[in-house]
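Can't attach files on this board, so I'm pasting raw text. These are the components:
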Amino acid sequence: MSDKLTFNFDVDGEDFTSAGQASVQIKRNLRQLGIDSDTIRRVSIAMYEGEINMVIHAGGGTAQVNVCENCIEIVLKDEGPGIKDIDLAMQEGYSTAPDNIRSLGFGAGMGLPNMKRNTDEMKIESEIGVGTTVTMRVNYGG
Amino acid sequence: MKISTIKELLNAQILCCEENINREVFSACGSDLMSDVLAYVKDQAVLLTGLVNPQVIRTAVMMDMICVIFVRSKKPGDEIIELAKESGIVVMITDKRLYEACGLLYSGGLRGNENK
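---
Top answer:
Structure tokens for the assembled complex are below.
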């Protein structure tokens, strides 16, 4: 697998119940490619958290997963309100999610830190009123 | 512990993937907060929860879990069952409350993550 393999998904922001579909699909795709289960789990947890974030905060967005020879890159892009203070958003327990999201089992302020924990690199680019792009990288094999 | 033993201990009803009830599991966790499950759970194959929505199953899929137990007789809808079937996750319901259900499994020998 020397060439990069790319998967693209639209993340629907309308309906919270469908959030996570792309992550379930990518998990299957990676399994078919024979990627080891630990790597798959890290990628899918990070992407799932990101997907949930896009649905809660940004009205959806797009997800791109690039499978390279030694790493998997996940790019989550939205045109939502942007993140005011990224350092604050990275703190465990800090959340701006509305209460109804909490009653659905999310919004505890664990998403971004958990994405960072499960990936080897994570970059957040955000502009107020324009949107947010989160790029994550999980190294494997090698 | 076999999933079939969990069913007996909790006097539970299996809603799907009964073909997998002879699979062996070694630890479990109980939570209504999927954020916590995603952040703290490691290698637990069973999730007990009072929360009923499709994200429970997706969370279980992400964590490589193989059994989800809904407590307090909360019955999941068809959409949830279909999602579980796609991933071969055994879904059951019990009339026990979360604390009691966890306690029954724990005292039956199914522990949390003790390697932490």
